[in-house]
Amino acid sequence: MNPRDFQGLAEKLVTGKTPAEFRTAISRAYYSVFSVGVELLDGMGFRISKGPQGHGELGHRLSNSKHPDIEKVGSQLGDLMARRIHADYRLERKDVETMGNAQAIVQQASQMIKILDKYSTSPDRERVIKGIREYLKKIS
């Protein structure tokens, strides 16, 4: 499955009218970015754990890539994950149930995916790989 399809679904759901649609849009937007990030790093030779720790691994590796665009996505990924948790598990949180909030999050996810996709073929790809390798060497 193409993880960008989750983003397409999020973009459809965000035009809905119900809290369930807005919450699900946020959740799918996060998983789209997460899966595109995993796909990118996998293509660069980096494996991300399949379990819950994979979410943190991806964020840390992106945030320590020594490339400002990718580092920004890594930082934003943590924020997006927190919003996804609110949407999926914090049903008392009404702030995630508004169209405006959901639209902003889905739009942010779209921009994050564009950046990740750019670096799958960019000449700066090697710089990203080198930065992540240095980070992994430092933490091991």
Q: Separation of termini? A: 33 Å
Shape: elongated
Radius of gyration over C-alpha positions, nearest whole angstrom: 15 Å
**Integer tally of domains:** 1
How would you spell out the order of helices and strands? HHHHHH
Give a quick account of the main beta sheet: strands, pairing sense, barrel closure.
none
Can you put this structure into words, describing what you see?
With 140 residues, the protein is mostly helical. The protein has one domain (4-139). It has 6 helices and no strands. The radius of gyration is 15 Å and the shape is elongated. The model has no long low-confidence stretch (mean pLDDT 96).
Question: What is the fold's blueprint, element by element?
Answer:
Layout: H1 4-13, H2 19-43, H3 53-63, H4 68-89, H5 99-118, H6 125-139
Helix pairs in contact: 1-2, 1-5, 2-4, 2-5, 3-4, 4-5
Descriptive tags:
single chain, 140 residues, mainly alpha, 6 helices
Q: Care to give the gist of this entry?
A:
By secondary structure, the protein is an all-alpha fold. Helices cover 74% and strands 0% of the residues. Helix 1 (4-13) packs antiparallel against helix 5, helix 2 runs antiparallel to helix 4 and helix 4 runs antiparallel to helix 5 (99-118).
